[in-house]
Amino acid sequence: MIRHSPRPSPHPAICIAGASLVKLRSQFVLTNLDEVTVNVKDKVGAMIAAIENDPAIAHVTFRASTQLEEGLRCSARARNLPPIIVDEPHRIGGTDLGMNPVELLLCAVGTCQEIMYSVYASMLGIQLDELRVTCKGTLDLHGLFGIRDVPAGLAAIEFETHIKSPASRESIRELIDRAERNCPIMDTVTRPVRSIGKAYLNGEEIHASGKNRAI
Predict the structure, then answer these.
(1) Mind listing the pLDDT tens digit for each residue in 53-104?
(2) Which of 80, 128, 160, 204 could crosslink 33 through cysteines, CB 3.0-4.6 Å?
(3) CA-CA distance, 160 to 157, in Å (whole number)?
(4) What is the CA radius of gyration of the chain?
(5) Whether 132 contacts 162, CB under 8 Å
(6) Is 69 left (phi over 0), alpha (psi -120 to 50) or beta?
(7) Nearest one of 93, 77, 178 to 85, comparing CA atoms
(8) Structural domains of the chain, with CATH
């Protein structure tokens, strides 16, 4: 379940140990957006025109690879970009050199919305002076550690979007609707999505899984 939070949470940013319910928060800020609006509008317009001319190119596949490096520390790679470190806090055995996977998920929710805000603001001619998204998720460590038969994932994701703009409330409401409705990550975490996995031992497939799930 994803919902807006009406006001900021009094809870600390991260609390891994000492409580069953864990709240994680991430914040993302974009400023001086008007400086890049023209380029975004041109690029998006060209992409839309290309898709309308050839609908087949609308179907795209994204790829990423990860590897366990040492202890709980992992590396993650996509395209030809430098790898990022994914880790856990010291309290649960990590080295705290990077965000953990749940925090990365919250970052994806926030930044994907910000990208969509920028895209649609450029298309609608809306000036954005600042855009900030704060995300918070709650999970029960009983499920993560297999102590009880409860879901291991987040029970809820809450987010707040803070916008600074000279545009009218009506224009911003339309922008909010379009950005949230067409955000790929938001769509992915709010509807059942089939996850398909295979496991290999020394190069031989030994396990396969596939199911519909809703985050």
Answers:
(1) 999 999 999 999 999 999 999 999 999 999 999 999 999 999 999 999 999 9
(2) 128
(3) 10
(4) 20
(5) yes
(6) alpha
(7) 77
(8) 2-49+107-213 (3.30.300.20)
β-strand 130-140 against 21-31: which pairing, if any? antiparallel
Contact 130, 30 (CB under 8 A): yes
What does 78-102 look like in DSSP terms, one character per residue?
-TTSPPEEE---GGGT----S--HH
Contact in structure between 192 and 215 (CB atoms under 8 Å):
no
Other C-beta atoms within 10 Å of 76: how many?
16
Q: What are phi and psi of 176, to 5 degrees?
A: -60, -45
Instruction: Give yes or no for a contact between 202 and 186, defined as CB atoms under 8 angstroms apart.
Output: no
